[in-house]
Amino acid sequence: MRKIVSLLIIVLVASCAYHTKGADGKSGKDGETVKPIITQEAIKASMNFLASDELNGRATGSEGIEKAAVFIEDYLKKNSIRPYFESYRDSFKVNDLDGYNIVGMVEGNDPKLKNEFIILGGHYDHIGKGKVVEGDSIANGANDDASGTIAAMEFGKYFAKSKTNKRSILITLYDAEEIGLKGSAHLAARLKDKGINAYTMINFEMIGVPRAEDQSMAYMSGFERSNFAETLNTYAGQEVVGFFPKAKGFNLFMRSDNFPFYKDLNIPAHAISTFDFSNFDYYHHVDDEADKMDYAHMVNFIEKMIPALEGMMNAPTKEVVLKDE
What is the model's pTM? Predict the structure, then answer.
């Protein structure tokens, strides 16, 4: 009898210890959740690979972008982000080139809301080679758009570990953006054919450098097309996403991977960026390299976006809506 009682005590203690573990495996105080931590080291490690000379500028159809695709697949698998389709790859053709979007899913924890999807993404391709500067011809594409790719990957890892999302999340990394949004267009059309219940889409486009101190941390393309920015800022408790007056003049809403999702799925779909054409001199330049990224800024951006995303993901109704133009 004493052995049975002792065994029950051990089981109960083990059970309590399990429930006080946080999402990253650390013990929580009084059962509280210990949320995953966003670190400069993890972001920098991803950046140092994706923007390395080894990948030769990540042009669509190249050996370099294949290496990037494998790296992203391994990252998703390692962090328990499962494939949305049969595999992580959403394959397509651009003339004679093979393209691959990488698509993972973090399932929501609400029996009903998990059937609605939030799409987060960024493009992992770049232009390959650029104008030669001091013997360097590789356009590494650190800010454009390894930074946005890594942000989407970090959000996927965070929610896969924290399990704080009621709605499901698609982590979508696009190929062939630089040659006309071909990857995102293919994926948007495929999701439409599949009949996905998509709620919103955010494309992270060049978030590797900070804006001026008197500006909002980031801005959203197509700001006036929905109440997306207003909703995110409410949940963030501050203005994380602001209005960029030049965005419309530059036609940014239609120039990035959010646009196919807006067009095909008829949902609020925007690009969020911290690059405003005045704070980084190396757009499509061979000096867009890992050592020019501001990793403290990237961590700060991701951390401030998390409560904004959580609020939207967990709201009982679809608060973000398109506006009549």
Answer: 0.91
